[in-house]
Amino acid sequence: MPITTCVFDAYGTLFDVAAAARQAAGEPGFEKLQQKWPELANHWRLKQLQYTWLRAITDAHADFWDVTQDGLDWALEATGLEGDPVLRQRLLDLYWELQAYLEVPKMLADLKAGGLNTAILSNGSLPMLDGAVQSAEIGDVLDDVLSVESVGVFKPHSSVYDLVQQRFGGDRDEVLFVSSNGWDAAGASGYGFVTAWVNRAKEPMDRLPWTPAHVLSDLTTIPQLAGL
User: How does the average pLDDT of the chain come out, rounded?
Assistant: First the structure.
């Protein structure tokens, strides 16, 4: 089946999750962060993801913003940066204004010009996602922003992927699902989507029952994968 819909994970896929720590590290007053921001960013993202998985399997769902704050607090303590409320608040504020990767605007514009549906499917809450979309100025090339909050469980639960067909219709193999998370791309593959894993960090393939159909270094070739 030809691809009719391209759906993207948000954090780490369209938006650079390390941008908040990197930007804060260059601002006056946060000199302690300058040498530790890569470690902080890595810890923050990993704990954020781990907490979504744990909440999903224990049926203890929470807003992604709460999970994001919990992950940051763990990361700050792990890097010896806890106890600075100004730094903590600045990092949280910047998370609402994450930078999009450089290729994102043109890639999405090319998909829309080619007549494809485009959407975000994210663990993020709608207010968080709206902030990132507005900051990146990509709202005009997205048909919708879908959040797990409408089903009350985080990815890779199948009910989250159900949201795509509920919104756009069609068969599962008409959807190209793109994520920077190997486990997310694998889960979507098991669900029946055509998948692309954006492996910017050149990580090993996750050992899971399913594998993504495509492995990319960035999003530049997504229009070609979609058949344009």
Answer: 96
* Spatial contact of 52 and 187, defined as CB atoms under 8 Å apart: no
- Domain assignment of residue 86, given as a range: 19-95
At 45-84, the pLDDT tens digits run 999 999 999 999 999 999 999 999 999 999 999 999 999 9
Question: Which residue among the candidates 9, 16, 63, 73 is catalytic per the annotation?
Answer: 9
DSSP string, 1-19: ----EEEE--BTTTB-TTH
Write the pLDDT tens digit of every residue in 108-126. Answer: 999 999 999 999 999 999 9
Residues 59 and 141 in one domain: no
| Catalytic status, residue 9 | yes
**Shared domain check, 217 and 151:** yes
Q: How far apart are CA 105 and CA 84, in angstroms?
A: 35
Q: What is the CATH number of the domain that holds 220?
A: 3.40.50.1000
Residues 210 and 124 in one domain: yes
Residues 6+ apart with CB under 8 A from 159: 151, 153
Q: CA 19, 147, 49 angle in degrees (round to 5)?
A: 50
pLDDT of residue 171: 96
Does 1 score more than 90 pLDDT? no
The tally of domains found in the chain comes to 2
Residue 64 shares a structural domain with residue 85: yes
DSSP helix/strand/coil, 146: strand
